[in-house]
Amino acid sequence: SRDFFLMPSLAQEFEQLVSSLQPPPSCLISDEVCGTLAKSARLLGIPRYILVPESASAFAATLLAPSLARDSKLPLQVARNETVDIPFIGMTVVAREYLSPYLDTFPWRADYFLEGAIEAQASDGILVNTYRELEPSILSGMVRDTCLNPHRAPVFAVGPLIPEPSSTVGSHRQEEEAEIMEFLDAQAPSSVVFVSFGTLIQRNEKDAREILSGLEQSGHPFIWKFSGDGDYVPTGAEKSGLILRNWAPQLRILSHPSTGSFLTHCGWNSCLESSSLGVPILGFPAFMDQPINCKLLVELRKAGVKLATLESFQIAEAIKEVMESEEIRRNAQKLKL
């Protein structure tokens, strides 16, 4: 967000505001990106904790940036396919794809984010939106690894930071939600596929047709929260599923006993919601932390499968695998809170 880059110019006003508070604050909790606030916390004489909204596994890649800088590997070259190994989880990522803030196309931005990573390592504590059953290795490793955490800042798993599934919606959505719950109530336990690719990713007509065909070939009822990049809207699935435009009560759907799997882009909130509710995933990640999140659930926790493409036959086969695999369902249940 561009707002991050305004923080240095607002530091003095922020410090004056905090100094005027009564009683004075006992600590400062801020996003891990904004190193400017670390300087303000030191000036004000209060501890600074960082709140990490992403997975510990993805954040570990960010904490590698200072070591890359010491090895003169920053800013990253757009034209090169350098890789970064994330310790404790056996994962290798293409640096320019995941660590995009550090690309040489915007050196000033790389410097800004590097300062944030350095200050994150020097914080008084790291609060991560995850839970130990989901990421035990990286949470333990992050405490003792001198490359990721040279100052031994304590690491706290404070997640999942998600609302209760029973949270009510506004009155303008109640009728729509009632229709969805009625559909779920009429299905067999663990039989429904829920499909959502988040709020940022929009599917084109070709992908949408393949997804619809794959869902129908699977033979399972489904609920699809559809967001498209044009005028096309999937139709003709009234007998086998619900297609919703742009909104769905995701937590209520995932927590319903009829829901058996979740086709997702693997955004971290979606991963937390599905794992904490014991729902296996079908992962189709796109960018940033999503491939790391998908690998965490599919390869490390073995609580789902990853889709290589959105071709209909692959979708149908993946749905059948997840729905019929006792091992996958058992592993997903182990993550349930």
TrEMBL record:
CDD domains: GT1_Gtf-like (cd03784)
Signal peptide feature range: none
InterPro entries, alphabetized: UDP_glucos_trans
Claim: Transferase is one of the keywords in the record: yes
TM regions (residue ranges): none
Entry keyword annotation includes Transferase: yes
Keywords: Transferase
Superkingdom as given in the UniProt entry: Eukaryota
MF annotations from Gene Ontology: UDP-glucosyltransferase activity
One Pfam match: UDPGT
UniProt cross-references to Gene3D superfamilies, sorted A to Z: Glycogen Phosphorylase B (3.40.50.2000)
Family according to the record: Belongs to the UDP-glycosyltransferase family.
Name of the protein in its database record: UDP-glycosyltransferases domain-containing protein
Source species of the chain: Selaginella moellendorffii (Spikemoss)
